[in-house]
Amino acid sequence: MNNKGQTLVVFIIFIPVIILLMAFIVDTSLMYIAKSKLNDLSKTIIKEIYDIEDKNSKVEELLNVNEINYNNYDVEINDNKVKLSIEEEIDSVFGSMIGNESYTIKSEITGYKDNDKFKFIVE
Question: Domain map of the chain by residue range?
Answer without folding.
Answer: 6-122
